[in-house]
Amino acid sequence: MRNNRGLHLIIGFSLICFAATSAFGEETAKALSLIPKPVKLEPRKGAFVVTANTRILVEKDSPEAAKAGKQLAGLLNRATGFELKTAETDDAQPGKGAILLTRREAKSELGNEGYELAVSPGSIVIRAPKGAGLFYGVQTVRQLLPPEIESRSPVAQEIAWAIPCVQIEDQPRFEWRGLLVDSARHFFPMDSLKRFLDLMALHKLNMLQIHFTDDQSWTLQIDSCPKLTSVGSHGGPFAMDTTWLGLGKGIGSGRYYTKDDIRELVAYAADRHITLVPEIEMPAHAGSWLAAHPELLCTSHAKFPEPKIGTAGDATQRIAWTAYHELCPGNEATYGMVEKIIAEVAEMFPGPYIHLGGDEASKLGWKHCDRCQARIKAEGLKDEGELQSYFIKRVGKIIEGQGRKFVGWDEILQGGLAPNAVVMSWRGVRPGWEALKEGHDVVFSPTTYCYFDYTYARIPTALVYAFEPLESLTADQARHVKGVQGNLWSESIPDLNRLEYMAFPRACALAEVAWLPLASRNWQDFQKRLSFHLARLDVLKVNYAR
Q1: 344-355: per-residue pLDDT in tens?
Q2: Pick the catalytic residue: 105, 223, 360, 476?
Q3: Does 285 qualify as catalytic in the annotation?
């Protein structure tokens, strides 16, 4: 009996220990549910607890450290109610009870966006070569804190603002970690775009492409061409020939972004180390542009019956319909207006890229346009395909003349392309592979993995996570892969609520694909971390897909 009783005691004690260990493991896993997962993370014992006496120290005479420190203080103050201040220091190490942000003694090999984070019970150090790295270190500290840190006002109940002790060395895999928002089909107000930028920053996404123009509306102020907004923001009589969009026959809302709006948005994004990439769609998807400036129509529009709204029409109507949607590359006035527009776009957007679209041009109207045919003959071009290449190359030079690199959808490869163009591969991955063989830089954004306007049944989060941009590539080709981008075309995304639903949690998966090396990715591990991370999105009131 005594032997059995002893055995029962041993078993009972073991179960208690196991339960305690499991609970500790669960809490540790919950606290370390970082997305994207750091490249190197070593858990340590203990935690640093933020209190009203915590000091935030920033490197002296470093605007980058000062900005990141201020952002950290704002994050902590908002939820905790503590009035934490920042102070400058010459020290490369913090004192007890301090959080230090510094570039001193940082590893240069971490690059522009890498950082080190050391959390001990007595202090925290965020160390990075550049300001972006300090910012991303702050985002990691943010995710290590309880989800309630995301509250917009001091949390009523008592919360221990504990940050688990870790040693992290981290840097992104790709330089382009992007999303696209389409404001031409449905307009997204400034507060919606700012909210989206905030969510991108949390997940270390750093490129937001905004699709400003399409058949339905022109949503960007251009002073030299005021009709683009006064007329083009409303679309036109043939702005869209598909009633399923539910956009009131494709007519735009009349809303657009002023130059003051854009300056404000650019600054807001820059504070979060996000680059805005403006897309001015051409030569196709130009219905609103041509509604404002019918003098840029191909002559073919007058040779065939006027197209009917709500139907693709017969073959002859289709030719005329195309003419109302595609700029005339044979018209010299087209390039004069492009020069004016690009000059103003470059003034508004200081980032290195301007996206010229370049996709889905049918070229039907060009076949029957007197000016286009004359241009083909004058330039010694073979056909309308080479005419498109002529247009893209010429517009590319205009963009380069403004000191910017031009980006285009993968159709810009047709007929040959300038070597410094960046190709965005959307029709699967093969066009990207072809571009890489020709030495072009590529951003992968294939419909098969990255079209977040598609349903979750078609592109589930697991499929996004399984995407491997470097698959089947040589080392030389891989170095030309700039990164990945998820696209949210807004034909069926009318507002921020739906935008968030279609983006998250797929954007979480893409963020990890873009940040973490393939060998470190694990779907089961990501699922577990995501299950805890969703509690943070709940506090932020994100309308993610459940």
Answers
A1: 999 999 999 999
A2: 360
A3: yes
